[in-house]
Amino acid sequence: MSYKAVILIGGPQKGTRFRPLSLEQPKPLFPIAGFPTIQHHIEQLCSKVEGLREILLIGFYQPSEIISFVSQAQRDYSVNIRYLQEFTALGTAGGIYHFRDQILFGRPTAVFIINADVCGDLPLDEMVAFRGTKPEASCIVLTTEATREQSVHYGCVVVDADSNEVMHYVEKPTTFVSTNISCGIYLVTVDLFEQLSSAFDKRSQLALHNDGDSMEPIEAIWFEADIFPNMASTGRFFALHTTRWWSQIKTAAAAVYANRHYLRLYHETHPQRLSKQTDDGPTIVGDVYIHPSATVDASAKIGPNVSIGKTVIVGPGVRLKESIVLEGAVLQDHSCVMHSIIGWNSVVGQWARVEGTPIGPNPNMPFAKLENKPLFKPDGRLNPALTILGCNVQIPRETIVLNSIVLPHKELSGNYKNQIIL
Ligand code: GTP
């Protein structure tokens, strides 16, 4: 058996809800628990899929934005990793059809397709085993449970309880369809490429008979709209349900939520990445990742659920929890940072306080997914959220910044609450 994997990384116009952090770096490379988002996918593919031959990143970023990550990953993992650039946004399935010869080269038994903007403890090995029981499947979709209210924001899947066949697939339905939702992770065989070919022909025919006023190129194909609804009930589309942790990463809040979960997973997968309390080091509370090049004063108190990036400096008496601090940032003496993301090279001054609102699903609702709340309430005020400092922001000493978003390269001069600082 041999496998390949495609990670759909999108491109520059995607990830708008992740701003201002996606202004500096492609969202799929944003570090969560100390490592780029898609590195977690690559690690899980390498450790859980026996016979994995190649991982292809497909998107429409300029190669210069992706290539150093790819070269490093190629060195770190014993599998071939390449970036294939779409000439324009081709949708979730258009790039896969466009690069079909490269994907199918070497005749892999099956191909994983993973949306870059999901994360979790992905049961990729279980998907392989499940496929063994469904030789007729051209596609297996991983599903998870959401609440009724949240389900309508995802791809909803109606599954036959006996056979696990997908009977209906509706993307973001207007009314309730099912609490089973797609995780954006599929295992497909070569047969799926016939469906892609038919979808491509259909779009080309439509384009011939249309005025051509569509915003999308005719080559754009979407699994969620063009493929899955038609594949349901054909006897070739099956679902594997998981109750393991899974979440989307659409917003900065979702990155902090994912940070917490990936740190927890490290206990099983990479315990050496978690900081340990030492006699002469800072006080460590719960799960914390500190990059080896960071300097953290012994009188600081860090955690739980904190990731500290490359070359960060954390001064004496600093309190830091439930946050991500990105490369080059400085937290000066006695500053306090909670429920926040501190952007690259930003400086939080002495005794300053940077604080957001705690996030996370209600623990009494086991199937609740993290709410991807809109930025604004209907009355125009900001929804309570994390505080996010873009890159190279300066917070003066003895100031307070609460529930605010600060765009890159700003030097603040006072206290701020519930504001977007442009
Ligand atoms: P939204 O809620 O509108 O974001 O929709 P969604 O959650 O269904 O996400 P979307 O369909 O936009 O993207 C799903 C995944 O596919 C993400 O990982 C994107 O980066 C990726 N993606 C989206 N469009 C493209 C595209 O044109 N090309 C490639 N290669 N990837 C894409």
Automatic annotation (TrEMBL):
Keywords from the UniProt entry: Transferase
GO MF annotations in UniProt: transferase activity
The keyword Transferase belongs to this UniProt entry's keyword annotation: yes
Annotated protein name in UniProt: Nucleotidyl transferase domain-containing protein
Domain Mannose-1-phosphate guanyltransferase C-terminal positions: 284-421
Domain Nucleotidyl transferase: 4-200
Pfam families reported in the protein's UniProt record: GMPPB_C, NTP_transferase
UniProt family annotation: Belongs to the transferase hexapeptide repeat family.
Superkingdom per UniProt: Eukaryota
Source organism of the structure: Plectus sambesii
